[in-house]
Write a structure and sequence with these properties.
The protein is of the alpha/beta class. It contains 8 helices and 12 strands. β4 and β5 form a beta hairpin. It is globular and about 65 Å long. Bound molecules: adenosine-5'-triphosphate. It holds the Pfam family oligo_HPY.
Length: 318
């Protein structure tokens, strides 16, 4: 179980602080897949990287993160070493480039395990099993990354990320560089990690809501460093209440029907600069329902069970 409370993560730049994650709260139960959605630049990667790999120029400004009843020392990169891979793990956005090009895969995995104080031989059987799970032959261990296709490299990173059976697995935009059929099999494999009990829970990050429809139990929509709306997948897809979620959904031609290679058509305008974000609702400049009350911080509205939105224009009868 994960609980994130009031998390603030800002990038330090020469011009000031970029408020990329600003007072974000959510939780994640065991056996649950949370989809994290929103346009490019809304803070998804910053949030998930901040949970596991927080380092300059990204800085911690407040809040806390609790995993399985233990406070994570997210602000201490060294201390987080005891948690990475073991308790929480990430398949990064550019997973295909994450492998060391100068090492054979098996040697690289040995080095990663050694750095975690784990003996390769003690985990060898699990490694072979896990390779099978993602349809990779054992011989990849004797190969260099350059000898593998992009999809194979990605699946290999999935194996390494889950090798120590972490409680929480984060998948950051893992499907964006893949063709449509590989996207589907990668999604199913990642869901399989949870269904097989290899990991307890999952955060699946994507800008594409139609991917989340297939695998997520709940969806959290972020906008400009803030949470816009959280609900079950059904609530978000069938009864979105935040104007941003509605626009995000309407920009997807085939949401919920099948995987699609159609790009997001885009919502008019663009997210605000997070160096000096607008006061009040950060979506107000693009929102068709703007009124002066939106110049104040939007309230947290409990729409129904499990369904929350941060917006002045939402009421429970929407
Ligand atoms: N190293 C950095 N220094 C300063 N600002 C940054 C840095 N990295 C990201 N940002 C800013 O932080 C904000 C959030 O970016 P982030 O990459 O987390 O968004 P995202 O939703 O994951 O988008 P994408 O899918 O394109 O990665 C953006 O305004 C971005 O410009």
């Amino acid at each position: 179980m994960l609980a994130v409370n009031g998390l603030k993560l800002y990038y330090k730049t020469l011009k000031g602080y970029v408020k990329a994650v600003d007072d974000v709260s959510f939780d994640l139960k065991d056996n649950e897949i949370l989809g994290l959605a929103g346009e490019s630049g809304c803070g998804k990667s910053t949030l998930v990287n901040g949970l596991i790999l927080l380092k300059p120029p990204l800085n911690y400004f407040g809040g806390n993160v609790i995993l399985d009843n233990e406070l994570l020392p997210i602000n201490d990169f060294e201390k987080m070493n005891d948690f990475r891979y073991k308790r929480l793990s990430i398949i990064p956005q550019y997973a295909m480039d994450a492998l060391n090009p100068t090492r054979k895969i098996g040697v690289y995995i040995k080095e990663v395990l050694k750095s975690k104080g784990i003996n390769y031989d003690s985990i060898h059987d699990r490694l072979i099993e896990r390779l099978k799970f993602v349809n990779l032959p054992e011989r990849v261990l004797k190969m260099y990354p350059i000898e593998l296709s992009g999809g194979m490299k990605q699946r290999l990173v999935m194996v390494i990320s889950t090798l120590l059976n972490p409680s929480l697995l984060i998948a950051d935009e893992v499907t964006s560089a893949l063709d449509v059929s590989s996207q589907k099999s990668v999604c199913l494999m990642i869901k399989g990690f949870k269904d097989e009990g290899i990991v307890k829970s999952l955060i699946f990050v994507t800008h594409d809501l139609s991917v989340l429809y297939q695998i997520a139990d709940r969806i959290m929509v972020m906008y400009a460093g803030k949470v816009a709306e959280i609900g079950t997948t059904q609530q978000i897809i069938e009864n979105p209440v935040h104007p941003y979620t509605k626009m995000l959904l309407s920009s997807l031609p085939e949401v919920g029907i099948r995987y699609t290679d159609t790009r997001l058509k885009g919502i008019p305008g663009r997210p605000p600069q997070l160096l000096n974000p607008p006061k009040g609702c950060r979506f107000k400049d693009r929102c068709p329902f703007y009124s002066s009350q939106c110049d104040s911080e939007p309230p947290k509205v409990q729409v129904e069970d499990n369904h929350i939105a941060y917006c002045w224009k939402v009421n429970k009868n929407d």
